[in-house]
Amino acid sequence: MSTSTNGNGVLSASRPTEVAKLDRVVIRFAGDSGDGMQLTGDRFTSEAAAFGNDLATLPNFPAEIRAPQGTIPGVSSFQVHFADYDILTPGDRPDVLVVMNPAALKANLRDVPNGGTIIVNTDEFTKRNLTKVGYDSDPLEGDTLSAFQVHKVAMSTLTQGALEGTGLGKKDAERCKNMFALGLLSWMYHRPTEGTEAFLREKFAKKPDIAEANILAFRAGWNYGETTESFATTYEVAPAKLDKGTYRQITGNTALAYGIVAAGQRAGLPVLLGTYPITPASDILHELSRHKNFGVLTFQAEDEIAGIGAALGASYGGALGVTSTSGPGIALKSETIGLGVMLELPLVVIDVQRGGPSTGLPTKTEQADLLQAMFGRNSESPLPVIAPQSPGDCFAAAIEAVRIALTYRTPVMILSDGANANGSEPWLIPDVNDLPDLSVEFASKPNAADGSGEFWPYVRDPETLAREWAVPGTPGLEHRIGGLEKQDGKGNISYDPDNHDHMVRLRQRKIDGIDVPDLEVDDPSGEARVLALGWGSTFGPIGAACRRVRKQGMPIAQAHLRHLNPFPKNLGEVLARYDRVVVPEMNLGQLAWLLRAKYLVDVQSYTKVAGLPFKAEELQHVFTDIIEGALAR
């Protein structure tokens, strides 16, 4: 059957099918770690973004470079939630599950709701593969999957058939089956196709035969959906009504990198990223390395300690020093972070949190580094801590971190996490002119209070308590700094006990005095007695759960903390306003612990450390129970 392309870049065809209009869909692609599920999901996401849907994604993959083939630990998946309205999460359960082998089915089946659609690559359901994952019999036979709409598709065979005559071997042809699956799903949901074909030609530009093979497989999947009688219905999800402007799909790591680039430009400073590759932060290095034209220098050091040492040295030299890592790297960088606190130099430390302790779960999300960020250095060593709430918000968080670092001359830690780093969403590209002016004034003349004509490195701004920043080599501003305690003002080494007490308190007072916005509370009815308070990537699940609770007719307030040190000045008043405060966290209650200690509020902690984000459904039940308990008092 012949096909053509309509004006939206969607293949059009003649076979009549029923078209169902939906407001939202959650699709999960799952297969072996070598099956290309991340690429498949990313391409479907890109086309949904180009079509104008709001979306959120959740990649999930093993830490091993190549886990044992066909086993449950080797399963890789990519979930995308797209809708015609603003959404907050990648979705709780997949409406459609595409599985490439028995392991993918077994690992993901429990998440599929009754009545959900399962599309199966039957070629991989061999006796050997079934045995690997503990299936005594083929689940595609009998009643095992009777609660679902199951579509059996011999994807490997059909892909190889479509590629006959291309000259590719059987093994190479079979690798294209993920594009067959993408083509089939693109047909089912009326997704644009021209962008994917252009992407494949660009990605495999040096191997045009591979590019064309993938395109043929992609078209074969689309044509299969059109010609087979198995799929009688296609689905449409209209574009979302978003705020006017130019959007692009963005991941949290990319947004952090762009934020650092933009901040460097707004500050008029060169940027140096001193880092060491570590999952899930490595993409920040990869992205920043592409932007040398914006005065960004990336330095891949031999280890974590050297990376932050280079970044702090760049700050000493008058640049914007940045380092990126995950929790294990923060442990190694802690001494140099403390040195940055003592030197009082601007430094941005990015911690993309992952499961731990030790090496832990490198590719899974967690937010259990909060107490490490607050206290994980020797002695009294305070620094500001901020956390982005979504992938797109990582850009704004990076700008804010640089603002604080430059204004107050201090290291600042950004606490992102795996869910934000790897997840994606539409991002409204800001107007550069709307970004804050981050320009700094370096010291230009001697400042000694005694009129000696010397430069004293610890003379401070009376409002911010930030010391002057002098570029080494500036005539007349010769000075020395280091890790030993400093005499206030002059900066000489001092062992005087009264001076040490003074300096410790002064450094703390500087952080406490940082100007941060008040905490905003979303309480539509004004009648809520329960407040759901979160930080980091829990924003989406908490917000989605609050929406559901309100639809049930129950009032609930929501607030989300970006600034974790110092807290917003109105936080104590906000907490006192509600009968119950519940704090969902992907740790064992670290923010709840801090709130109880500082504000003496009986915060209710709800925790999860499964390596996966909260589901809106589970938080909905938690909030409902707490509200009912509050009303019963």
UniProtKB/TrEMBL annotation:
Q: Where is the Pyruvate/ketoisovalerate oxidoreductase catalytic domain?
A: 34-221
Tagged with keyword Oxidoreductase: yes
The chain positions of domain Pyruvate flavodoxin/ferredoxin oxidoreductase pyrimidine binding read 272-488
Which InterPro entries does this UniProt record tie to the protein? 2-oxoacid/accept_OxRdtase_asu, Pyruvate:ferred/Flavod_OxRd, Pyrv/ketoisovalerate_OxRed_cat, Pyrv_Fd/Flavodoxin_OxRdtase_N, Pyrv_flavodox_OxRed_cen, THDP-binding, Transketo_C/PFOR_II
* Annotated organism of origin: Amycolatopsis thermophila
User: E.C. number, please?
Assistant: 1.2.7.11, 1.2.7.3
List, alphabetically, the Pfam families matched.
POR, POR_N
Q: Which UniProt keywords apply?
A: Oxidoreductase
Q: Which domain of life is it from?
A: Bacteria
Name of this chain's protein: 2-oxoglutarate ferredoxin oxidoreductase subunit alpha
Any one GO MF term held by the record is: 2-oxoglutarate synthase activity
Cross-referenced CDD domains, in alphabetical order?
TPP_PYR_PFOR_IOR-alpha_like (cd07034)
